[in-house]
Design a protein that fits this description.
4-stranded antiparallel sheet, 199 residues, 5 strands, homodimer, NADH Oxidase, alpha+beta
Chain lengths: 199, 199
C-alpha cells in the first residue's frame, strides 16, 4: 500500500476482531521494518513489551478505562523508552559509520546528553513517536489496523509490566483486524500551524 | 511507493541538490497528508516553521555544526510543539466526534494535563515524532529524501525563529533531492529490545 494511502486510511481503531491471530511472520516484518525508523544519534531508545498473556491484558484493561482494544487486538505493544540508552555502549550505534564520523559523533553524543535528563527524555519520547508511526503505517501496509493509546494509568501499567527504573512508558499501540468505523476525521487547517521563516 | 519500501529506503540524507525547488503542490500534499498523523487527544501539537529565506537558513546553519542540509535542502522545517495546545479551545479537537465521546473526553483531557507540565511535554514530543515520521515517509512516496536533525543549538534556533514562550523545538527535518549515499545501516537486533509480557 502506498504511503499516502496508508496515512489516509490509518484511523485510531476502537474495535478489533478478538479471534484474529497475527502470524509470526507478519509480526517479524512489522517489528523489523519499524525499527528502521530513525532516532537521535541512532540510539534506538525503544523497548517494547509484547503483551500476549490474556491475564496481563485483563490487568492492563482495568487501568485503561476498560478500553476493549487492550484485550481484543491481535497485538498489544507497550512502547517504552530506555532513558539511559545514550550511555549504554554508544559505539555500537555507529559501528558501520566511517571512523571520522564515529570520532566526531561519540564525544558529541556524550556532551549532548550528560547531565541533561530533560534533553534525553525529550529525545526518547520523540523516538517513540517516530517508531510508533512507522509501526502503524507498516501495519496498514500488512492489512492491519491500529490504535495508539495513552488513556491509561501509566504508574499502574509500569507496575504490571515491571518497568525498570530508568525506563519510561510512552504509549501503547494495539494492532489487529478492525471491525468498526470511526467518526469523520478532524484536523486543524495547515495554515493554522505553519509559518514562514519565523513566528 | 509501498510503506515497507519507503521505510527501507529512507535514510538520513546528508547531501541535497541545492538547485532543486519543490513545487507548491508537492509541499501541500506533504504537509496536509502528514498532519493526518495521530496525536494524543487529537491535540495536533505541531507548529512548523518553513524556513525559505536563505539568510535565515545561513543563520541556522551557523548554529547547526555547519551542516550542509540546512542550506541545501529544498525544504527546511523546524518542528515545534505548542505545549499549551491541550488548553487552547480543546472542543475543536473533537468537533466531529459523537456527543457522548466529547462529553467523556473533554473533562478527561483537562484532568490528564492540568498541573502536569511533564505529561504535556512528553505528549508533545511524541506527537512531533509521529508527525515527523509521517512527513519523512510521505516525502519518500513523493520521490524526496529527508534528514531528521537535532545536532544544533536549540536556544540559538529558538531566538532565530522567534519561538513563543510556551513552545518547544523538537527537531528539524530537511527534505529534498538527495545526492549522496550513506554508510551501511546499523540496528540493534529486535531480540534486544522486545520482551514478552513484562520486563
Amino acid at each position: 500500500m502506498d504511503v499516502i494511502e496508508a496515512v489516509k486510511r490509518r484511523r485510531a481503531t476502537k474495535a478489533f476482531d478478538p479471534n484474529h491471530r497475527i502470524s509470526a511472520e507478519a509480526k517479524r516484518v512489522l517489528l523489523e521494518t519499524s525499527a528502521l525508523a530513525p532516532s537521535a544519534y541512532n540510539i534506538q531508545h525503544w523497548r517494547v513489551v509484547d503483551v500476549q498473556d490474556s491475564a496481563v491484558r485483563e490487568d492492563i484493561r482495568k487501568v485503561a478505562w476498560g478500553q476493549a482494544q487492550v484485550t481484543d487486538a491481535s497485538l498489544l505493544l507497550v512502547l517504552c523508552a530506555d532513558l539511559d540508552a545514550w550511555q549504554e555502549n554508544p559505539p555500537r550505534y555507529w559501528a558501520t559509520a566511517p571512523q571520522p564520523v564515529q570520532d566526531f559523533l561519540l564525544p558529541k553524543l556524550d556532551e549532548y546528553y550528560r547531565g541533561k535528563p530533560q534533553v534525553a527524555r525529550d529525545e526518547a519520547m520523540r523516538s517513540l513517536g517516530l517508531f510508533g508511526m512507522a509501526l502503524m503505517l507498516v501495519a496498514q501496509d500488512l492489512g492491519y489496523d491500529s490504535c495508539p493509546m495513552d488513556g491509561f494509568d501509566f504508574d499502574a501499567v509500569a507496575r504490571i509490566i515491571g518497568l525498570p527504573e530508568h525506563y519510561a512508558i510512552g504509549y501503547m499501540i494495539a494492532i489487529g483486524r478492525g471491525t468498526g468505523n470511526s467518526w469523520e476525521r478532524n484536523r486543524i487547517p495547515v495554515a493554522d500551524w505553519i509559518v514562514d521563516n519565523h513566528f
